[in-house]
Amino acid sequence: MTRAVLIDDSGFMRRVIKDILSQNSIEVVAEAENGFEGIKKVIELKPDVVLLDIEMPVLTGLDTLSLIMKKCPTPVVMFSSLTKEGADVTMEALKLGAIDFLQKPKTSLDVYALKDQLVDKIKTSAKAKVKDSSKEIKIQKKVKTLREVSHGQPNRICVIGCSTGGPKALTQIFEKMEYLNQSIFIVQHMPAFFTKTLAKRLNDITPFIVKEAEDKEEIKNGVVYLAPGDNHMEIVEHNGYKIISLNKDPALHGCRPAVDYLFKSAASIFKEKLLACVLTGMGKDGLDGSQWVKNQKGLVYVESEETCTIYGMPKQVAERNLADSILPIDSFAKEINKFLG
């Protein structure tokens, strides 16, 4: 049974969440109404996972998370509000070491509508690998000195799919990339407000442009396009130009955006001039798309188990012998640049 510590200043919220978790093979071994109490419980009981509210008195959720990672690194799922400010803080939490996050409902009773998502994130995060992020080298914001790239549209591209642990993995890739002559497309499982914030954060650490994709946008060299939350992203041809198409078709594998949508559409157009990368995340999104890429003579690289936060999506691809290469996350920047030229 998964063992969890619940840290939230609302007693009623804690009771509702505990009730839901206890009915789904998750034991809440301790509760705390503030960060100081929570840290003590985590150190004492060493749970499998912590559910932590971002907004709390006495000690903020971010400060609590930082201390947990320093004193007793443990998988943490954050409760975040669906606002721009909430998205900014959530991105900071993921940078500090949180595994995942869940949008916090407006009322305690609304938690029941999210019970399946809550249980899934708790159980998935409990299996994640955790490191003390405070010991990692701080990423410096890079000055935007855009390198001259050829005009027109790319003749080869890279597509990337990721889920749990993805923001950190993407950061590790793009902080090492000094140039981009072609185009890159990313699907990260994440709600709308949060993808915009993620795009901005990645844009800040690269010398090229990272942006949220727009519907009917013409694809350009030297740009990284991130699928907006709650939208599938595809690459299509229209009047001789390659453009981005966004749609709200039903979720695939419970996800919108879904990696398979991007991979299949890109493979149909770029064929052997396509590199598909499957990074950390739970589930099988990207598996069918990877098969499509291979059918069109493209390449598929997956992240290795030792560097994945969750070795789920890459494992599905690797076990079906669809991976041309299995790489640690710090090798992707070099390999992507080598492929794109």
UniProtKB/TrEMBL annotation:
Enumerate the spans annotated as Response regulatory domain: 3-119
Please name the Pfam families in this protein's record: CheB_methylest, Response_reg
Q: Which UniProt keywords apply?
A: Chemotaxis, Cytoplasm, Hydrolase, Phosphoprotein
Q: NADP: is it a keyword of this entry?
A: no
The UniProt entry annotates the active site at S163, H189, D285
Q: Which GO terms describe its cellular component?
A: cytoplasm
- As stated in the Swiss-Prot or TrEMBL entry, residues carrying the post-translational modification 4-aspartylphosphate are D53
- According to the entry, every stretch annotated as the CheB-type methylesterase domain falls at 151-341
What protein am I looking at? Protein-glutamate methylesterase/protein-glutamine glutaminase
Species of the source: Alkalicella caledoniensis
